[in-house]
Specification:
Among the domains are: about 1-70; about 75-165, Elongation Factor Tu (Ef-tu), domain 3 (Beta Barrel), CATH 2.40.30. It has a six-stranded antiparallel β-barrel with strand order 1-2-5-4-3-6. Helices cover about 60% and strands about 15% of the residues. It has helices at about 5-70, 150, 170-215, 230-235, 235-280, 285-290, 300, and strands at about 75-85, 90, 110-115, 125-135, 140-145, 160-165. Strand 4 and strand 5 (about 140-145) form a beta hairpin.
Length: about 300
């Protein structure tokens, strides 16, 4: 065979081997790509199902948000608010956002619901305010409810949120709570007044008790007035009665001693009279005595 033919045959054999290797590699690579395509298709189907589910949830949430917004109407965020001494507030918006006071006094004035920022960043409902004076970039609002002093003290100047409307259920609940708080405040004031009255009565009773104790035990302020004032005012009724009882006891002892002496004197006198009678009986009888048969006892002896 010619040399060229041998070279060509060799090249054909080498090319066939290389082609077989490339074909084998191509099959392996194609199988890998097909596997990845199948995985991607499965993932795509799964993501499509999740996307459909998320879209449904999004639509439901948007519907819920729309229903909620129906009761809240317009909202203004970041409105500068300054608290006044009479619990009214001055806000940094007015006719520029559509707030106007009707010329006809029979028509209602604009009413806004105020929310102030809380400690955690959330907004806290303050109450309902009516427009009293509206200008281009400023309005004076007065509360439509009776604010409590403890409540006003929690109001802070800053950027508040205002809404033109809130759901009726929240308004009714707020009014009920405000009414209950006012009732409790009135009860608290009544109890406080009663406590003050009881305190005054207690002070009066303590003063009366002090006066009674001074009457019984003596007034410390009169200790240097002994001899100038009655003893019961200086030493008190207890000590005075004790002294009087002691004097009475001493008088009873004297009286008892006198009674004993009197008794002994009387007994001696009786004995003397008896002895005198006996002696008189031993005397010679007088004519008058013999006639009567009696012995005359001297009047002094009989006594």
């Amino acid at each position: 065979m010619h040399t060229l033919g041998k070279v060509l045959a060799f090249l054909v054999v080498v090319g066939a081997g290389i082609g077989a290797a490339i074909a084998s590699r191509t099959v392996v690579i194609r199988s890998g790509y097909m596997k990845k395509i199948d995985e991607q298709n499965e993932r795509l189907v799964k993501n499509a199902a999740q996307l459909e589910e998320l879209q449904t949830k999004e639509q439901n949430l948007r519907s819920d948000l729309a229903r909620l917004n129906l009761g809240w109407d317009r909202v203004w965020d970041g409105v500068g608010t300054q608290i006044q001494n009479d619990a009214s507030i001055v806000i940094s918006m007015g006719t520029n956002v559509g707030l106007t006071i009707p010329a006809d006094q029979n028509l209602p004035v604009p009413v806004l619901h105020a929310f102030q920022p809380g400690s955690n960043g959330e907004y806290v409902y303050v109450g309902m305010f009516a427009a009293s004076d509206v200008r281009e970039n400023q309005s004076l609002l007065v509360p439509t409810f009776v604010p409590r002093l403890s409540e006003v003290s929690t109001w802070q100047n800053g950027n508040w949120r205002f809404r033109s409307l809130i759901p009726a259920g929240y308004t009714e609940r707020f009014l009920n709570l405000a009414g209950r708080l006012n009732t409790y405040d009135q009860l608290k004031e009544a109890k406080t007044a009663n406590l003050e009255a009881q305190t005054q009565l207690k002070l009066v009773a303590e003063q009366h008790l002090k006066n009674r104790l001074n009457e019984l035990n003596g007034n410390p302020d009169f200790q240097n007035a002994e001899g100038k004032l009655p003893p019961e005012d200086v030493k008190g009724y207890v000590a005075t009665i004790t002294d009087v009882e002691e004097q009475r006891n001493q008088a009873w002892e004297v009286v008892d001693e006198l009674r004993r002496r009197l008794f002994h004197a009387h007994s001696n006198m009786v004995e003397l009279i008896k002895a005198n009678r006996e002696l008189a009986g031993k005397l010679p009888a007088t004519p008058a005595a013999e006639t009567s048969g009696e012995v005359e006892v001297p009047e002094t002896a009989a006594k």
